[in-house]
C-alpha cells in the first residue's frame, strides 16, 4: 500500500510539472514578439500582415489563445505548423524514430563502454589504467559537442574518407553522430560507475566476502556491481529522456532529421505550434522517465520503500 | 527470426564500402543549407530553389537575365491596366493534364483570393483578375499601371499549377507532391532528408541532360563542404566565407562566385530622430566608413562596395561610385553640424549576412575614429526581425532585388516613408518613388529610377555598404556558372567527364 501511494504521489507531482511546463511554454513564446510579421515576406504590406494575423488567431487575447492551446493539447491537437502547413504532432512523430535511433545507439555504446571502463578504473584505483581512463573521461565531458562533432567530420570524413559526413539511411551514417552525442554520457557514466564502485568496494560486506575467500572477480561482479548500479540507472534514465528530446547540436551538424533539428528550425522561423509540441514532448518524456526511475527504485532498493 | 536477419543485414551494411553519391553520370546531388518544408509555389515561405525546377512561369529569364517567352509565347500591354498573354500549345503537366488558359486563371485566382491568405500575395498584389479569352489567350488586369507585370509573371508565385490535380488532392498534399510543367518531375520528399526529382522526358524545351536530382539539406557549413569534397554531393550552395579556402585548395572542387549575386547590405538610419535627421550628420557617417577596407580584409573580396542600393544587373541601375573613405571630411561635417566632439548612438546588427558581426564591429570603430561612440548590439535573426523597422537608430540590413532584377525591388520598400521596413522620410524621394510605380514606358521609367538613385546619393537616406557575392561550390565535373537571380536551374547544368 505504501508503495502504491508513493507511486500515486509521484504521478501527481508529474502532472503538476506538466501544467507548469505548458504555462511556461505558451507564455514564454508569445512574450517574445510578433509572429505575423516574421511569417510574412519582407515585401508584405501592413494590411497583408494584419490579415494573416487575424487568420492565424494571433490577434485574440492571450488567455483565449492559451485556453485554445490547452484544449488542443488535451485532445492531441497542437495546431498546424505555420511553415509546413501540417499538424505539428505529425511532424514531431515523423522525426521521433530518427531521434530515438540516435539516442539509443549513443546510450548503448556509452553505457557499455562506460560501464566496462568505470569498473576497470575502480578495481585498479590509482593505477596507471585508472589514470588513463580518468583522463579520457574528463576530456569527454570537457570537450563541447559542436567541436567534437566538427572534429569527427574533419578527421573521419574529410581526411580519412572512412565515413559519410551526415545524413541518414545507412549504418555508416549513424557512427559519427552517435559517437559525438554519446561522448559526454560515456564520460559521465565511466566516472559515475568508478566512483560508485569504489564506494561500495569499501563497504563492510565486501570485506566480509573477501574474508570468506571469494575471488576478486566474483566480488566485483556479483556483490559490488549490483549495488553500485542504482545511481547509474537513475542517471541513465535522465540521460535517455534528455536525448529523446532531441540532440540539437548533433542533429544540426550531421544533418540528422530528428526532433532537435526540427526544434531549432522552428525556433528560428517562429513556428510556434511546432516549438510548443517539441518542448512539451521533451518535458513529458522527462517526467515519465523520472517517474519510471522512481518506480524502479521501489523495487531495486528496498530501503526507499517508505 | 526476421529481426535477427534485419540485424545481420544492418551489420553487413556496415561492412560494405562507401559508394560515391554520383555513381552514374546523369545524376546530381545538391547540398542546401536549408530544409525544404513545402513545394506549393503559390504558398511558399522559403527560397524557391527546388520549385524552380518543377514548374514554369509564363515568362522566364534566360542566362543573360532577359525576359523571354516560356509558357507564354508572347505578351503585350493592351492599355495601362490590361496585359494579354498568348499561351504555348501542347504543353502538358507531369500528370498528363493540359496546360491552358484556365490553368493560368486558376493559378492566379488562388493567390489573389483574400480568403487564401497567400504569403506570396505581395508579389502580385497589383493583379485584380484574369480573363480567359480562349484556351490559348488570357488577359491580366491590374489595379493601375504596372510596368513590372511581365516580371511578376516570371517569379515563383505565378508558377502555373494544374487545376484538376490541385483541386483533387488539396493544397496540403499538393505542397508535398507537386506537379508542374517544368523540366523535372517530383519523385520523393522526406522532410529534413531529401527531395528527389527526375527528368521530364516530354519537357517542351527538350528533355534535360541530367536524369535525377537529389536535394539534400545539410545545415552546417563544414559538413556541407565535406559532403562536396568527399563526393557525397556534387554541388552546394551557401559556402561560408571563412571556409572558402578549403574549396580553393581542393583538387576535387571549385568555388563558383557569382559577382553581385547576393544581397546589398546597408545601414538603416532612423531619420526622424536627432541627430540622424541632419543631412550633414548622415553624410559624415557615410564618409567615415572604409568600404574597401571592409570588403578586402573582412569579406576576403567576396563583395563589391557600392554607392546605390540597386544592383548592376537590375533594370534602372545607375553606376554611382561608393562614398570615398574620408575621415577628415567626416570630422569636418560633424563639426559643421554642431557636433565637434561627436555623440553617442546605438547600432544594431544581426547574424545573417556574410561576417556581419565583424563588419558591424569594424564600422563601430570607424565611427569611433570621428568621435561617434557606438553602443553596439548584436541580436539573433529570429529576434531581430520581430521588430520591423528596427528601432536602431542605426541598424544593419541586407536587401535584394535578385528575384526581380528591377530597381523597384531594391529601393521602394526601404526608402518610401511608411513602408514596413523603411525608416526614411524624404518627401521628394517619396514623390519620385510613387511616380516610378505609375509609368509603364520603360525609357521614362528608367529615367525616374535613375533620379531616385541620384537623389538618394545626395540625401543619404541610408548608408549603402556593399553587395555580397553569391558563393557556391561544385565538383570538377559539374559545369554551372551560377546566376545573378540566385536560381539553380538543373536544366542548365551539364556534367562533364
UniProtKB/TrEMBL annotation, chain A:
Transmembrane spans: 12-31, 100-123, 135-156, 162-186, 228-254, 274-300
Family matches, as InterPro entries: BPD_transp_1_N, MetI-like, MetI-like_sf
Keywords, sorted A to Z: Cell membrane, Membrane, Transmembrane, Transmembrane helix, Transport
Start and end residues of each ABC transmembrane type-1 domain: 96-293
Location within or outside the cell: Cell membrane
Keyword Cell membrane attributed: yes
Pfam family, any one: BPD_transp_1
Domain of life, source organism: Bacteria
Bilayer disposition of the protein: Multi-pass membrane protein
Regions annotated as coiled coil: none
UniProt similarity note: Belongs to the binding-protein-dependent transport system permease family.
Protein name, as recorded: ABC transporter permease
From TrEMBL, chain B:
The keyword Transport appears for this protein: yes
Subcellular location(s) of the protein: Periplasm
Gene3D superfamilies (alphabetical): Dipeptide-binding Protein, Domain 1, Dipeptide-binding Protein, Domain 3, Periplasmic binding protein-like II
Keywords from the UniProt entry: Signal, Transport
Primary site of residence: periplasm
Ranges of residues in domain Solute-binding protein family: 66-418
CDD domains registered for this protein in UniProt: PBP2_NikA_DppA_OppA_like_2
Pfam family membership, one: SBP_bac_5
Keyword Signal: yes
Top-level division of the source organism's lineage: Bacteria
PROSITE patterns: SBP_BACTERIAL_5
Signal peptide as annotated in the record: 1-21
Record-linked InterPro entries: Peptide/Ni-bd (IPR030678), SBP_5 (IPR039424), SBP_5_CS (IPR023765), SBP_5_dom (IPR000914)
Similarity comment: Belongs to the bacterial solute-binding protein 5 family.
Protein name: ABC transporter substrate-binding protein
Amino acid at each position: 500500500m505504501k508503495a502504491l501511494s508513493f507511486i500515486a504521489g509521484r504521478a501527481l507531482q508529474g502532472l503538476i510539472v506538466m501544467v507548469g511546463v505548458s504555462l511556461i511554454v505558451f507564455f514564454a513564446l508569445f512574450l517574445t514578439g510578433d509572429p505575423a510579421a516574421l511569417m510574412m515576406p519582407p515585401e508584405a504590406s501592413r494590411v497583408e500582415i494584419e490579415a494573416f494575423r487575424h487568420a492565424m488567431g494571433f490577434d485574440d487575447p492571450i488567455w483565449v489563445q492559451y485556453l485554445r492551446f490547452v484544449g488542443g493539447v488535451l485532445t492531441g491537437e497542437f495546431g498546424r505548423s505555420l511553415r509546413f502547413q501540417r499538424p505539428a504532432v505529425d511532424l514531431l512523430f515523423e522525426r521521433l524514430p530518427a531521434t530515438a535511433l540516435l539516442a539509443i545507439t549513443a546510450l548503448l555504446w556509452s553505457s557499455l563502454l562506460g560501464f566496462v571502463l568505470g569498473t576497470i578504473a575502480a578495481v585498479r584505483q590509482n593505477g596507471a589504467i585508472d589514470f588513463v581512463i580518468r583522463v579520457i573521461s574528463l576530456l569527454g565531458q570537457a570537450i563541447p559537442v559542436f567541436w567534437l562533432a566538427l572534429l569527427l567530420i574533419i578527421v573521419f570524413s574529410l581526411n580519412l574518407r572512412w565515413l559519410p559526413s551526415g545524413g541518414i539511411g545507412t549504418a555508416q551514417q549513424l557512427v559519427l553522430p552517435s559517437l559525438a552525442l554519446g561522448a559526454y554520457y560515456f564520460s559521465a557514466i565511466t566516472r559515475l560507475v568508478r566512483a560508485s564502485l569504489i564506494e561500495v568496494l569499501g563497504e563492510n560486506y565486501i570485506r566480509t566476502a573477501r574474508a570468506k575467500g571469494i575471488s576478486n572477480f566474483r566480488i566485483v561482479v556479483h556483490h559490488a556491481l549490483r549495488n553500485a548500479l542504482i545511481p547509474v540507472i537513475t542517471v541513465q534514465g535522465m540521460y535517455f529522456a534528455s536525448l529523446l528530446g532531441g540532440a540539437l547540436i548533433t542533429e544540426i551538424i550531421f544533418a540528422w532529421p530528428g526532433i532537435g533539428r526540427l526544434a531549432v528550425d522552428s525556433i528560428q522561423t517562429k513556428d510556434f505550434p511546432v516549438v510548443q509540441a517539441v518542448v512539451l514532448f521533451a518535458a513529458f518524456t522527462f517526467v515519465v522517465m523520472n517517474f519510471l526511475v522512481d518506480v524502479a527504485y521501489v523495487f531495486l532498493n528496498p530501503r526507499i520503500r517508505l | 527470426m526476421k529481426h535477427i536477419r534485419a540485424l545481420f543485414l544492418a551489420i553487413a551494411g556496415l561492412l560494405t564500402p562507401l559508394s560515391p553519391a554520383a555513381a552514374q553520370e546523369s545524376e546530381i546531388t545538391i547540398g542546401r543549407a536549408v530544409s525544404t518544408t513545402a513545394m506549393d509555389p503559390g504558398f511558399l515561405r522559403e527560397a524557391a530553389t527546388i520549385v524552380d525546377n518543377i514548374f514554369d512561369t509564363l515568362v522566364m529569364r534566360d542566362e543573360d537575365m532577359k525576359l523571354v517567352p516560356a509558357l507564354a509565347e508572347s505578351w503585350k500591354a493592351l492599355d495601362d491596366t490590361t496585359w494579354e498573354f498568348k499561351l504555348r500549345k501542347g504543353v502538358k503537366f507531369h500528370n498528363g493534364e493540359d496546360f491552358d488558359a484556365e490553368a493560368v486563371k486558376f493559378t492566379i485566382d488562388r493567390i489573389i483570393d483574400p480568403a487564401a491568405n497567400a504569403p506570396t500575395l505581395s508579389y502580385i498584389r497589383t493583379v485584380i483578375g484574369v480573363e480567359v479569352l480562349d484556351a490559348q489567350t488570357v488577359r491580366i488586369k491590374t489595379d493601375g499601371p504596372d510596368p513590372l507585370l511581365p516580371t511578376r509573371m516570371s517569379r515563383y508565385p505565378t508558377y502555373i499549377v494544374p487545376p484538376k490535380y490541385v483541386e483533387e488532392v488539396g493544397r496540403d498534399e499538393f505542397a508535398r507532391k507537386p506537379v508542374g510543367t517544368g523540366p523535372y518531375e517530383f519523385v520523393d520528399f522526406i522532410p529534413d532528408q531529401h527531395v528527389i526529382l527526375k527528368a521530364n522526358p516530354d519537357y517542351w524545351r527538350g528533355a534535360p541532360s541530367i536524369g535525377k536530382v537529389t536535394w539534400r539539406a545539410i545545415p552546417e557549413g563544414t559538413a556541407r563542404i565535406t559532403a562536396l569534397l568527399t563526393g557525397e554531393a556534387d554541388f552546394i550552395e551557401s559556402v561560408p566565407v571563412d571556409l572558402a579556402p578549403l574549396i580553393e585548395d581542393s583538387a576535387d572542387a571549385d568555388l563558383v562566385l557569382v559577382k553581385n549575386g547576393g544581397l546589398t547590405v546597408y545601414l538603416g538610419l532612423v531619420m526622424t530622430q536627432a541627430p540622424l535627421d541632419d543631412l550633414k550628420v548622415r553624410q559624415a557617417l557615410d564618409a567615415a566608413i572604409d568600404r574597401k577596407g571592409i570588403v578586402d580584409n573582412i569579406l576576403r573580396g567576396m563583395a563589391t562596395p557600392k554607392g546605390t542600393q540597386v544592383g548592376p544587373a537590375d533594370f534602372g541601375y545607375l553606376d554611382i561610385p561608393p562614398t570615398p573613405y574620408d575621415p577628415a571630411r567626416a570630422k569636418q561635417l560633424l563639426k559643421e553640424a554642431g557636433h565637434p566632439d561627436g555623440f553617442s548612438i546605438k547600432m544594431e546588427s544581426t547574424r545573417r549576412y556574410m561576417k556581419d558581426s565583424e563588419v558591424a564591429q569594424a564600422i563601430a570603430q570607424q565611427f569611433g575614429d570621428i568621435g561617434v561612440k557606438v553602443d553596439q548590439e548584436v541580436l539573433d535573426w529570429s529576434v531581430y526581425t520581430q521588430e520591423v523597422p528596427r528601432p536602431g537608430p542605426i541598424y544593419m540590413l541586407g536587401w535584394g532585388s535578385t528575384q526581380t532584377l528591377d530597381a523597384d525591388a531594391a529601393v521602394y520598400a526601404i526608402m518610401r516613408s511608411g513602408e514596413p521596413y523603411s525608416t526614411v522620410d524624404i518627401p521628394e524621394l517619396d514623390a519620385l518613388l510613387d511616380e516610378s510605380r505609375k509609368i509603364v514606358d520603360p525609357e521614362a521609367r528608367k529615367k525616374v529610377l535613375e533620379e531616385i538613385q541620384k537623389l538618394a546619393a545626395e540625401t543619404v537616406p541610408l548608408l549603402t555598404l556593399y553587395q555580397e557575392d553569391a558563393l557556391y561550390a561544385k565538383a570538377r565535373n559539374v559545369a554551372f556558372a551560377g546566376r545573378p537571380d540566385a536560381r539553380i536551374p538543373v536544366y542548365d547544368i551539364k556534367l562533364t567527364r
